[in-house]
Specification:
12 helices, single chain, 2 domains, mainly alpha, three-stranded antiparallel β-sheet, hpI Integrase, Chain A, DNA polymerase, domain 1
């Protein structure tokens, strides 16, 4: 099993150019699939669509949601594509296996008032608060993914012309940054980062208090802590800020094409979900506030 996982991971990284998060997700799913095959005494090479269908049924029995099962199946399908590409199997047993479709869930977004409350929580008088303020402001200013945020290097920020250079495994893009976010990042760079830097060759923009590049998990904890302090009752993640960035731009008149480019979506169909979200919000507001809507 370990050989399959390591070889598959290398294939994803070198041939597919998969990101670190994708690698972790896919290999985790495949480990679970291989464990299931081991329990039912089936070899991965000889497994057919009946075996995969039984695996899907087992996931349902365990209470996995349709969306989670769809993700698992996508991982297994990708794994067999690798096995086909390396001539280890001749057919992909996942092709005929179907999973019930679920309605696409609209993203959770924060109101502008909630964003203001969240951004006002960090105390810039101490090092950690100053750093956290810069991260939160930059996240909302640009709508980048959390991985893209923590992967930023100092050289990716241009304080003179208010932009960041965001690089990912799929694309590179230049994103404008509003003044308050630039001010927060500038304060962090001048006062905090030099004080917590241990290795002078460290390129990472955002560091933990030990002078190392901040992790995704570390930032998740930070944002949840400030959301609690801001009195935000809903469960939020860094991606909630990304969704809020896009929805607020659209609500204030930005075009879908511009939002697509800033988010780094490869297809504008991914960006259309924010139009659906806005239409739903407008319809809800209409029904709630129009004097004749309830008649």
């Amino acid at each position: 099993m370990k050989d399959y996982i390591s070889e598959y991971s290398e294939f994803l990284a070198t041939t597919k150019g998969a990101s670190k998060n994708t690698l972790e997700s896919y290999t985790r799913d495949i480990k679970q699939y291989l464990s299931y095959l081991s329990n039912v005494n089936v070899d991965v090479i000889t497994a057919d669509d009946t075996v995969v269908s039984k695996y899907v049924a087992e996931l349902k029995r365990l209470g996995r949601t349709p969306s989670t099962i769809t993700r698992f199946l996508a991982s297994v399908r990708s794994f067999y594509q690798y096995l086909m590409a390396t001539n280890q199997v001749t057919e992909n047993p996942t092709v005929k296996v179907k999973v019930e479709k679920t309605a696409k869930k609209l993203p959770e977004i924060l109101t502008e008032k909630e964003i203001d409350a969240l951004l006002s929580q960090p105390s810039i008088s101490d090092f950690k608060g100053c750093r956290d303020k810069a991260m939160l402001e930059l996240l909302y200013a640009t709508g980048v993914r959390v991985t893209e945020l923590i992967d930023l290097n100092v050289d990716d920020v241009n304080l003179q012309i208010n932009i960041i250079h965001c690089k990912s495994s799929k694309n590179e893009r230049i994103i404008p940054v509003y003044h308050d976010a630039i001010k927060a990042v500038s304060e962090y760079l001048s006062r905090v980062r030099p004080a917590i830097t241990v290795d002078r060759n460290q390129k990472a923009l955002f560091l933990n208090m030990n002078g190392e590049r901040l992790t995704r998990q570390g930032f998740w904890k930070i944002i949840k802590s400030y959301a609690f302090e801001a009195g935000i009752k809903r469960e939020i993640t860094p991606h909630t800020i990304r969704h809020s960035f896009a929805a607020h731009l659209l609500e204030n008149g930005a075009g879908l094409k511009d939002i697509k480019d800033m988010l780094g979506h490869s297809d504008i169909s991914s960006t259309h979900i924010y139009s659906t979200l806005m239409k739903q919000r407008y319809a809800s507001a209409y029904k709630k506030f129009h004097p004749r809507a309830g008649r």
